[in-house]
Design brief:
Layout lengths: L1 H14 L7 H10 L3 E5 L6 H9 L3 H6 L2 E5 L4 E6 L4 H16 L13 H15 L2 H28 L1 H12 L5 E3 L5 E4 L12 E2 L2 H6 L3 E2 L11
Parallel strand pairs: 1-3, 5-7
Antiparallel strand pairs: 2-3, 4-5, 4-6
Bound molecules: zinc ion (ZN) (2 copies).
Amino acid sequence: MTANIKKSARRFLREYKINILSFERISKIIKSQGYKIIRFCKAYNDENIEILINVLGLKEYVQAYSAFTYVDNNYRLVFLEDNISEQEALILLTHEEGHIYNGHFGKTVIAGENTTDEFEANEFTHYLLNPPIINKAFAFISTHKIISTMLCCSIFVTIGGSISTSIILTQQTYYREYYATPSGKKYHKAECIYIRDKQTKRRVSKDDIKNEKLEPCKVCLPELRKD
Ligand SMILES: [Zn+2]
Ligand SMILES: [Zn+2]
């Protein structure tokens, strides 16, 4: 299943000749597929949108989700919350495109109630927003960071053996470059779209992840060894 989604994501990137996907671009693609994007607010909408939401019986979806896609014989609508950042909007629209492009609209009008579909849309988002070339560039940056950390450690080694040992042990518990925002409940890879431009991010260790019960981000899909 994962392999298929990866292939599907690659096909999508080729088909639309995308190097880096932007909010503008994904919006245009979705519109070119015959969908209308409707920006809504949870609290207040102007009359036409409010009527549409009520007629289609989507009130509870508007309350529960920041984005969802509605399909019936007459309408193809992607609902997207209005008061969100462009980064978030990009992620949410890419997720909805994941449902559209992978044909999740068979019997149901709304995707989102099927766990497999959700997983596939998240995978699709992951591959579209982390294309291989960018991954390589960030991998280089991460390696670079590790090297400079190691250099710091070796400087301490020359100062005092006992201090350096404890520093190296602390470093090891990080084991990978994972980050979270100060109040965030998820942890991310360094290159994740949610974290990479954040000024206030902090690096989290395995223990931090465990103690704070941080969840892996659904976009960058960080792994954690269970040892
Ligand atoms: Zn979904
Ligand atoms: Zn992430």
